[in-house]
Design brief:
Blueprint (H helix, E strand, L loop, with lengths): L2 H4 L1 H16 L6 H6 L5 H9 L12 H4 L45 E2 L5 E2 L11 H5 L14 H9 L2 H11 L7 H16 L10 H6 L7 H11 L28 E2 L7 H7 L25 E2 L21 H9 L10 E2 L4 E2 L11 H4 L7 H12 L7 H5 L1
Antiparallel strand pairs: 1-2, 3-4, 5-6
Helix pairs in contact: 4-9, 7-9, 11-15, 13-15
C-alpha cells in the first residue's frame, strides 16, 4: 500500500536510503529508524484504512465498507443485496446504505447557515463535523467494527511495531501515553489519506470533456444541458455546488439536508431486526439538531461515481439509477409511469417521514419524458472516475 501516493518519490527515497546504508557500513542511520515504514500521515493513514485488526474479530477495515476498487462503497452482498452492510460480527446489518467515501473531503464542516438551514458534516446526518471525526466512528460502532472503546483500539495499534514507530515520529514521543491522544492521531491519519487525490481524481469523462479532451455523445450532452438548467429539471437545485456549470471541481452536491419522501426499505427492516414502525429521523439524529422540522432530512450526496455506487437513497431502497430519476419525476408528472416504481410495478411507498418534504425543490421544473430521463442517466454515468469506468458495463 502507498504506491499511488508516493510513486517516483518512493523510488527516489529507496535509492537514497540504500546509498545511506552503504555509506554507514550497511547500517540504517538513526533518521531512517525514526521514520519507520511510513514517511507521512497520508501513508500511515492508508495502512490504517485497510487494517482489519482494528475491528473486534479482525475481519473488517474502513476499506471493507468503502472499498477503493468499487467506488469506495461496500461490494459485499447480504441477504438484502447491497442495500446495507454486514458488521464485523458476521450477523449485524445496518439500516443505512454506506455512502461513498470518494470526494468526501469537500463536504464543509457541519454548520447552520444564516438562513437557518443546515449544511455539511460527515455521515448522512452530519453528526461528525469533520472528516477525522467520521474516521473514528466505525471502529467503535457495535454493529460495524465493534471495538468496545478507544483503549481497545489503541491496544491493537500497539501490536504493530511499525505503527508505534510512525506514531512517535509523526505525532511526538508522548503520543502513546494517552489512549485518547493516540486514537485522535489514528483518526487524523486516516483523514489525511482521505484528503489525497486518490479519493478525488477529477478524471471522469465529464472532467475530460471540460478540459477539451473528448466530446460527449448527443444523449450525454442533452442530459448535461437538462441537468444544469433550472428551466428543464430540478437536478441542480441540490446537486450543484458552484455557480458555474463548468466548474472544474464540481462535486454535484450543495451539502444541504432534504427530505425527498423516500419510503421505508421494508426488506432491510425485516433483516436487521428493527421494528416495522421504526423511523430513521435523519438529520434529527444529529446531536446538534433538535428542531422537529428537520426530521427525515438527509445530506445531499455527491453524484460523483453515482452510476457505480448503488443501490440508492439513504437506505438503499432503489436498485437502479434510472429508478431514482423516475422517483423524482413523480412530483411533477401525473402520468401512470411516473407514479409507479419500475422495480416493483407498484405505486411508490409512502414517505418514511412525512410533513417535512422539500416540496419547493422537488416540484421545481417540468415533467420529464423517457427520452429526458434516459439522457439524465447517461450524463450521470459520465461522472464516473476513470478507474471505475469498467464497472459501468459490469
Amino acid at each position: 500500500m502507498g504506491r499511488h501516493l508516493r510513486g517516483e518519490k518512493q523510488v527516489w527515497l529507496s535509492m537514497a536510503v540504500a546509498g545511506l546504508v552503504l555509506a554507514a557500513g550497511g547500517r540504517l542511520p538513526a533518521l531512517a529508524d525514526e521514520m519507520g515504514a511510513f514517511d507521512s500521515k497520508e501513508a500511515l493513514g492508508e495502512a490504517l484504512f485497510h487494517d482489519t485488526n482494528l475491528s473486534m474479530n479482525r475481519t473488517q477495515a474502513c476499506a471493507t465498507c468503502h472499498d477503493p476498487s468499487f467506488g469506495f462503497v461496500d461490494p459485499r452482498p447480504t441477504e438484502v443485496g447491497l442495500a446495507v452492510s454486514l458488521g464485523d460480527d458476521g450477523v449485524s446489518l445496518g439500516d443505512r446504505h454506506a455512502p461513498t467515501a470518494s470526494y468526501a473531503r469537500f463536504s464543509p464542516p457541519f454548520h447552520q447557515t444564516s438562513e437557518g438551514a443546515y449544511r455539511g458534516g460527515q455521515f448522512l446526518d452530519g453528526r461528525e463535523p469533520h472528516l477525522a471525526g467520521q474516521a473514528g466512528g466505525p471502529p467503535l460502532n457495535p454493529i460495524e467494527m465493534g471495538m468496545p472503546d478507544k483503549a481497545a483500539v489503541v491496544d491493537r495499534l500497539r501490536e504493530s511495531d511499525d505503527y508505534v514507530t510512525a506514531f512517535k515520529a509523526l505525532y511526538g514521543a508522548e503520543i502513546w501515553d494517552d489512549a485518547d491522544s493516540a486514537y485522535e492521531a489514528m483518526r487524523e491519519s486516516i483523514a489525511a489519506f482521505e484528503m489525497t487525490a486518490h479519493f478525488a481524481p477529477f478524471d471522469s469523462r465529464y472532467d475530460r470533456y471540460l478540459r477539451g479532451e473528448l466530446a460527449l455523445t448527443d444523449q450525454e450532452e442533452l442530459g448535461r444541458v437538462l441537468f444544469f438548467s433550472e428551466q428543464f429539471s430540478n437536478c441542480n437545485q441540490c446537486h450543484q455546488l458552484h455557480t458555474s456549470p463548468i466548474a472544474p471541481t464540481e462535486t454535484f452536491s450543495n451539502y444541504e439536508y432534504h427530505n425527498i419522501g423516500i419510503p421505508t426499505h421494508t426488506a432491510v427492516r425485516a433483516a436487521n431486526g428493527l421494528p416495522d414502525d421504526h423511523v430513521d429521523r435523519g438529520l434529527l439524529e444529529n446531536p446538534l439538531v433538535s428542531d422537529p422540522a428537520q426530521a427525515g432530512k438527509f445530506k445531499v450526496p455527491t453524484l460523483r461515481n453515482v452510476a457505480v455506487t448503488g443501490p440508492y437513497m439513504h437506505n438503499g431502497v432503489f436498485e437502479d439509477l434510472r429508478t431514482t430519476v423516475v422517483f423524482y419525476n413523480k412530483y411533477n408528472s401525473r402520468a401512470p409511469a411516473a407514479q409507479t416504481n419500475p422495480e416493483t410495478g407498484q405505486p411508490w411507498g409512502p414517505p418514511e417521514v412525512d410533513g417535512t418534504l422539500s416540496l419547493k425543490e422537488l416540484e421545481h421544473g417540468p415533467a420529464l419524458d423517457d427520452q429526458r430521463i434516459d439522457a439524465l442517466v447517461a450524463f450521470m454515468k459520465t461522472l464516473t472516475d476513470q478507474r471505475y469506468e469498467h464497472l459501468l458495463e459490469d
